[in-house]
UniProtKB/TrEMBL annotation:
TPR-type repeats, residues: 56-89, 169-202, 386-419, 517-549
Pfam families listed in its UniProt record: TPR_8
Species of origin: Pedobacter alluvionis
Signal peptide (residue range): 1-23
InterPro entries: TPR-like_helical_dom_sf (IPR011990), TPR_rpt (IPR019734), Ycf3 (IPR050498)
The UniProt record lists the keyword Signal: yes
Alphabetic keyword roster: Repeat, Signal, TPR repeat
Protein name: Tetratricopeptide repeat protein
Length: 573
């Protein structure tokens, strides 16, 4: 899980300040980068830049750290300084090209790459690093730019040709990455396996193999690969992260609590072995959301300290809002989500979940109109959020706002016609439209006939796709009764009431007692002057369900009473 794109400008002098705590060794810094210990790597590289100010490799690797943590402007500053310090070293030109790729500017990227080739066209590493830059694999997931796989593979292939003795495992690692990022796992496997042949101590290739198994949902195989990495190097953090994400998916995103706990345990281990930087804490917070550990998420998000004007503060507001809502802290959720929307000026970065949690928080605060508007936006972005439309519809139905409730169920059907919960949406659309019309009739107001026709159509669809959905027939019978000609009734609702009572199973009678009684009363009333035996049977069943039903008792008594005797004719005089 990646974090949002960040771009801050740091004073170059500040960038180059370093700590002498870490060993002044570029290979150690590269190992720290590979292990995603970015703060450690940054400190080491700042110190190297300070002590070896003419070595362009140090600037390049420091710039990469900034790119990997999303600080593109800071990376540019370092690469530019590196070009000045070591003009014959082409790596910093490649670094600028990668920054261009991450900024969605491939034209500028190619200009920088071409300059790098002119400086050293015979060195395989020139093409290797250009290929890796075209992949831009560590860019934030919400960035609009995409890896340029064609140019990436062309350059990596050129590097492979120039490295004719196949002595550099990094070439095969880049090949594997180029295929893996395209989800071409079969093609990626061979290069990753070659990495192990050249460099048996390389942990990332085997970690990537475990990751590919995870993506193929071959969880036991992926688990074994990643545990093998950990057995070989218990301090290699990325393996714990991938194992955590494997268990997260294996848990069906928090559904299997035991595996979800393993997921969190491994991700915490990854955090302990890496920076616990703001960036990694944000990734952990996002992980906790998908693992459904909302209490820990709220604690982590609330504890995050973000510098003023840092764009990551927007992400923190988002996560605090999501967590607060899930923990039923609705007023605080509304505060956080309102704060998030006030801060986020780029609408393209607003997620469906952002509108969803804002809308749901507004619904809890009684801000119905605003809530509905935002939940609809959430469903437009992601149709799975249609569940929330139905949830809001139920909330408004309980508040007896039947018209608004029906509109939400219509929307839920529109965005989720056949998915989870869709059957009940058709039912509730019928029910809310019935209540809306029933109250209008009771208040002697005209009701919306077209809306009832639409509701009947929804219930008709429900009967086709789920013929055993008993309550659909009951509501359809009610609607038919409501629109029936009162002066000359056609009894159009009776077949639906009869179908309903036939579908209710013995073990379901208690839960359906009121509806069953109403259905039997309608059936009895219709047959009273057409089929006396049927009418008596219906009213008898109604009274068995509800002995206090005065209507059924009176009608049954009337039907069972003997017919009055005919008056005798008078005798003629």
């Amino acid at each position: 899980m990646k974090i949002l794109k960040k771009a801050i400008t740091l004073n170059v002098g500040l960038v180059l300040m370093g700590s002498a705590v870490f060993a002044q060794d570029l290979n150690d810094a590269k190992k720290a980068i590979d292990a995603e210990q970015y703060q450690k790597a940054s400190s080491m590289l700042k110190s190297l830049v300070s002590s070896k100010a003419s070595d362009g490799d140090n600037y390049y690797n420091l710039g990469l750290v900034y790119l990997k943590t999303g600080y593109i402007d800071s990376a540019r500053a370092v690469f530019t300084k590196g070009i000045t310090a070591d003009p014959k070293n082409n790596l910093n030109l490649i670094g600028l090209g990668e920054a261009d790729m991450l900024s969605n500017n491939p034209t500028s990227a190619k200009t920088n790459f071409d300059k790098a080739v002119e400086l050293d066209k015979k060195n395989y590493k020139t093409y290797l690093y250009i290929g890796k830059a075209y992949l831009a694999q560590d860019k934030p997931s919400d960035d609009v730019s995409k890896p340029d796989f064609a140019n990436a593979l062309a350059n990596i292939t050129k590097a492979d040709e120039l490295d004719s003795k196949d002595k550099d495992a990094e070439v095969f690692l880049a090949q594997g990455d180029a295929y893996a990022l395209q989800k071409k796992n079969s093609e990626a496997l061979g290069p990753y396996m070659r990495v192990g042949d050249i460099d048996p101590n390389n942990r990332r290739a085997k970690t990537q193999i475990g990751k590919m198994y995870k993506e193929s949902r071959a969880f036991p195989e992926g688990e074994k690969e990643l545990q093998d990495v950990i057995a070989a190097d218990a301090n290699y953090g990325p393996a714990y992260r991938e194992l955590g994400e494997l268990y997260l998916q294996w848990s069906s995103f928090g559904t299997d609590k035991e595996k979800a706990a393993k997921a969190i345990e491994n991700y915490k281990k990854y955090m302990d072995l890496t920076d616990k930087s703001l960036e990694s804490q944000l990734r952990f917070a996002q992980f906790l959301f998908y693992a459904k550990d909302f209490k820990t998420l709220e604690q982590v998000a609330t504890a995050l300290q973000v510098p003023a004007n840092d764009p990551k503060g927007i992400v923190v507001s988002r996560l605090k809002g999501w967590a607060a809502y899930e923990n039923k802290n609705y007023p605080q959720a509304l505060t956080y989500m309102t704060e998030f929307f006030a801060k986020e000026k780029d609408k393209s970065k607003i997620l469906g979940n952002d509108y969803l949690y804002l809308g749901k928080s507004q619904l809890q605060a009684g801000q119905d109109s605003l809530a509905v508007m935002n939940i609809i936006e959430a469903a437009k972005i992601d149709s799975t959020n249609a569940d929330a439309l139905a949830e809001a519809g139920l909330s408004l139905m309980k508040a007896k706002k039947y018209g608004k409730s029906a509109e939400l169920f219509q929307m839920a059907i529109k965005y989720n016609p056949n998915g989870k919960g869709s059957l009940t949406n058709y039912y509730y659309l019928g029910q809310t439209r019935f209540y809306e019309a029933y109250i209008a009739q009771k208040e002697k107001k005209p009701f919306n006939t077209a809306a009832l026709v639409e509701a009947d159509s929804a219930l008709s669809h429900l009967a086709k796709v789920s013929p055993e959905f008993a309550l659909g027939y009951f509501v359809r019978g009610r609607i038919a009764n409501l629109v029936d000609d009162k002066a000359n009734p056609k009894g159009t609702g009776i077949p639906y009431f009869e179908k309903y009572v036939s579908l209710v199973k013995p073990e379901e009678v208690a839960a359906n007692k009121t509806n069953l009684s109403e259905s039997y009363n309608n059936i009895g009333a219709w047959y009273s002057d057409k089929d006396k035996a049927k009418a008596i049977d219906a009213f008898t069943k109604s009274l068995a369900l509800d002995p206090a039903d005065t209507y059924a008792a009176a009608r049954l008594k009337e039907l069972q009473s003997p017919a009055p005797a005919a008056k005798a004719k008078g005798k003629g005089k």
